[in-house]
Amino acid sequence: CVDAGGLIRAVNPAFCAAAGLEARDVTSRRILDLVHDDDREELERGLDGAREGGRIACRLRSKEGTWLEVEWTCQTSPDSGMRYLKGADVTGRRPVESALEESRGTILALFENAAQGILTVDPAGCILSFNAMAERLFGYTREEIQGQKLEVLMPAKLSDVHERHRRDYFA
Question: Above 70 in pLDDT, residue 55?
Fold first, then answer.
């Protein structure tokens, strides 16, 4: 709980445990004193704007001097002006997000450069993605085919049967 002047008025045990701090070490201190220099302006702006349910990301100094990456949501009491912050330690998220993005890039490169035509469809049979080889094989550009039913790519005599098989597959 932070007052209008930015002073910490109360903390819960979960905050203390995550930061390795005692409540007496942080109450009556400015919240900005616990935040990384590069993040103070964003936190101050977020607290001043007190965006209801808005997210504020910053690094918070732990007792050991390490930096915890914290994502806060803020709600302001209209009566007292007190800001109630709920924080989540997201320190481990950035490496995971980076690995996920790298993996996504690898999969996209494999999809795009495959020697086979690859396409994806949703349960309704609408084409979602179409790789370069599929463009060459079927003669459609992605823009032309995306959103079309898969069955447009097959002879009419097979499309009804295929549509039933597809519905059964996704059922």
Answer: yes
